[in-house]
Amino acid sequence: MIDVQVLYIHAGVNEKTMIDTHVHILPGIDNGPATVADALTMARTLVQEGVRIAAATPHYNDEFPHRSASEIFQRVSSLQVELSNAGIPLRLCIGHEVLIKPRLVDDVRLGYIATLHGSRYLLLELWNSIWLPETERVVFELREHGIIPIIAHPERYRAIQQEPERLGTLLRLGALAQMTIGSLLGAHGTAARRSAEMLLKKGLIHCLASDAHGFRLRPPQIAQGLHYARQFLGIERVHFLTEVQPAAILTNELVGTPSLHMKVR
Fold it and tell me: How far apart are CA 75 and CA 81, in angstroms?
């Protein structure tokens, strides 16, 4: 696996690169690319959009066969060889996008679930249309066992769109929040776009990611989305959300609070 600490060198603000902590790029494993060839095409697209490090985060839910952390490691290693042979300068890390459920911490402790690059950070997906009553309890249990959940695309959950304070509650319990860049472009509907802008302006988002699933279906939309984001967040803060914070996550360092570092324009 890659040494992100060595690969990531902070040399000032760079508008043209990012570290993507949420990508469905492993072939034939969920609703990402079907083949290795498709995965390579997707990788080229990510590189063209500015991504140089990406966490492969296949779904961990009941819709797809469960793949253990060890299998994800093997699949990422195999795809990395394919990328190198094809001359594609994209470095991969392991991960899962885990659908929330009661006693999720047991699956983490048993090695079923891959945290992001083996760190303390776990990408956690909530239900889209309902609020699981155990949500706060699951976040609390993960934190009690040293795991920091990162809530994937909070702007897309109906409950948070209607009651943004629900996300605030999870953050106070020790969770972080990761926004999908495409939401700023309306890729997931008007409600998600409005929610995305509001959560960013309130400083409730810790990092931005593509949540890309392919080069045609659910493409990255990174360059266009970040261009839009810079117009109302500013270059420095977008860099903070796409480089500084993701690097801290993958190197298992503490992640800062966006609202404490810089103001929205």
Answer: 10
Instruction: Identify the pLDDT of residue 40.
Output: 97
Query: Does any domain span residue 76?
Result: yes
Q: How far is it between the farthest Cα atoms of the chain? A: 48
Q: What is the DSSP string of 85-124?
A: HTT---EEE---EEEP-TTHHHHHHTT-S--GGGSSEEEE
Q: Output the pLDDT for position 214.
A: 81
With residue 22 as reference, give the H or E element that holds it. strand 18-23
The candidate with the shortest Cα–Cα distance to 19, out of 258, 218, 215, 208, is 208
CATH of the domain at 108: 3.20.20.140
Q: pLDDT category, 248, cuts 50, 70, 90?
A: very high
Cα–Cα distances in angstroms (integers) from residue 148 to residues 69, 123, 144, 233, in the given order: 17, 9, 9, 26
3-state secondary structure of 139: helix
Confidence of residue 11 (pLDDT cuts 50, 70, 90): very low
CA dist 57 and 175 (Å) reads 18
In a domain, 5, yes or no: no
As beta bridge partners, residue 55 has 93
Q: Which domain holds residue 105?
A: 16-260
Residue 121 lies in a domain: yes
Residue 251's contacts (CB-CB under 8 Å, 6 or more residues apart) are 4, 5, 8, 117, 119
**1 domain-assigned:** no
CA atoms within a 13 Å half-sphere pointing along the CA-CB vector of 263: 1
**Number of domains into which the chain is organized:** 1
The pTM of this model reads: 0.92
